[in-house]
Amino acid sequence: MTAKDALIERYQDLLSVYLKAKTETTLYKGQQFSRKLLEQQISPEDLVSLHIQVMDELFPDMSEEMRDSFDFLLESMIGYGFAYREHQSLRDKQQQLESEIEVAASMQQTLLLSDVPDFGELDIGVVSVPAKKMNGDYYNFVKSGNSLSVAVADIIGKGIPAALCMSMIKYAMDSLPEEQMKPHLLLENLNRVVEQNVNSNMFITMFHGVYEPESHKFYYAGAGHEPGFIYNAKEDKFNDLIAKGLVLGVSRSTTYHPYEKKIEVGDMVVLLSDGVTECRTSKGFIERDEIVSLIRKYMDLSSQKIVENVFQELDRLQGFELRDDFTLIILKRLV
Amino acid sequence: MNLQINQDQINETFELQLTGEVDAYTAPKLKEVMLPLTETEGNIIIVDLSGIEYMDSTGLGIFVGALKSSKANNSSLKLRGMTERVKRIFEITGLTEVMDIESGVKGEAL
């Protein structure tokens, strides 16, 4: 007996039981049977034709009008059949795409994974959470010689194009010689790479900084990135970490301004992506002051605990639905 | 939230009046209207943003694309009437330095 014959038999059983007793149980079984039909990829018009076949056997002397009406119904179902098959093939395609995205996302994770380094006098905390599968925010720590370089970037647009673009940034950064690791020069170099290689309505915002432990100085430059904060422990005050500059990828000849700041014991450098400041709650946008007061609330904890707590609170305020990728980094000078 | 685009034209001057939000969902619509205008030499495109309460980075990207296109095609793109919130993201990204942004008040003659 073929699978189709088995289905016909089962349908015949269910239908005749129902026509005799008209019980809810049989109706329910009919419902469940429809799932089986879907599994076997029986299309709507196939089911109607099955119905006709069964009715022919159950009622050999069915009236001619009734018989004809079924034929008419069968023809009227053809459109649904097409829609059903289209749905099937789209679903297959979608499953295929989804599994490809899974692979890409995990490749991205592996490629871009930046370990948070252990850096003696700096206590470092990082949280970076994508809004969708692939993260459009990028951060990177590199220890070179005695100094520590830190980069935060936000690729506009989300999802796959942003992720691909980010891989490009990573490799461009990795291939720069060490003398060009000065933040403003690094941005100038990256800008040329980005300008040549990205689609005209894409751009990247980036902050880059280098901390030198001998002088306790933080050298930095920005390319249109959301300003972070700098906490001055002596004055117990948070100030904006302003680093002006045009976003990467707009104009080939852009130059960037070098900035520097002395970091004292207890001072903190806070870097973020605009996913932090563009948090939207039922009451409107989160203001920068509110971020500061959240950081202040947890300031006595380790850097990692601060960023995690701030993220959790902001996530909760947004109803646990991130609209944008979220990255928050804190560097605190311990000694 | 939606984006409404009203378009006026006098000779080669096009004025786009935007209302609503420019984000990842509405940005393609803006691109579709604005980009082709920048592709004709001599066109002047004035975009009035006074009705925009929110713009995200994807929206900003459309303006970056339009700016590049207007430079490549010798048309001109001017923005005006930004709300504080929108102005802030143009400032942070440094775009105020490279774009023609009129501080003019809404409703001025072209």
UniProtKB/TrEMBL annotation, chain B:
Keywords assigned by UniProt, alphabetized: Phosphoprotein
Residue ranges occupied by any STAS domain in the UniProt entry: 3-110
Residues spanning the signal sequence: none
Pfam annotation, one family: STAS
A single MF term (Gene Ontology): anti-sigma factor antagonist activity
Highest taxon of source: Bacteria
Entries under SUPFAM superfamilies matching the protein: SpoIIaa-like
Keyword match RNA-binding: no
Gene3D superfamilies found in the cross-reference section: STAS domain (3.30.750.24)
Keyword Cytoplasm found: no
Function (record text): Positive regulator of sigma-B activity. Non-phosphorylated RsbV binds to RsbW, preventing its association with sigma-B. When phosphorylated, releases RsbW, which is then free to complex with and inactivate sigma-B.
PANTHER family in the record: ANTI-SIGMA FACTOR ANTAGONIST TM_1081-RELATED-RELATED, ANTI-SIGMA-B FACTOR ANTAGONIST
Family named by the database record: Belongs to the anti-sigma-factor antagonist family.
Protein name, per record: Anti-sigma factor antagonist
Source organism of the structure: Fictibacillus phosphorivorans
